[in-house]
Amino acid sequence: MKDKKILVCDDDQGILEMLELLLEEDGYQVVLEPNSVNALRSIERESPDIVLLDIWMPMISGDQILRSLRDNPKVSSTPVLMYSASTDGKNIAESCGADSYISKPFDLAVMLEEIERLLQE
């Protein structure tokens, strides 16, 4: 179960490092993508089992990335967990087809539970 690959796309280096530590400690392979412009290419190249995606990023926002991902037959079925500090984050995540949503600051235990739940579906 734990040989799953998770791609994390976030422009915040601190969050990337924290999630990388947490997820690797939990036995996952982790791929970090700090640049939203490269996110789709990275997802195609890496074929992750799940994508963690911040909504608010410079250049291309998480909802734009997710809409493009859902339109791409190669990766359209990849589960995506979105997160944001925005009060409107849940609505944005639902409207663009996220499989799950967590608000920031997130509880790491809740994040891990959501990842496990999505990987089992």
UniProtKB/TrEMBL annotation:
Question: Which InterPro entries is this protein grouped with?
Answer: Bact_response_regulator, CheY-like_superfamily, Sig_transdc_resp-reg_receiver
Domain Response regulatory, residue spans:
5-119
One Gene Ontology BP term is: phosphorelay signal transduction system
SMART domains for the chain: REC (SM00448)
Question: According to the UniProt entry, which residues carry 4-aspartylphosphate?
Answer: 54
UniProt entry keywords in alphabetical sequence? Phosphoprotein
In its UniProt entry, what is this protein called?
Response regulator
Q: What is the source species?
A: Pedobacter kyonggii
What does the organism's lineage look like at the top? Answer: Bacteria, Pseudomonadati, Bacteroidota, Sphingobacteriia, Sphingobacteriales
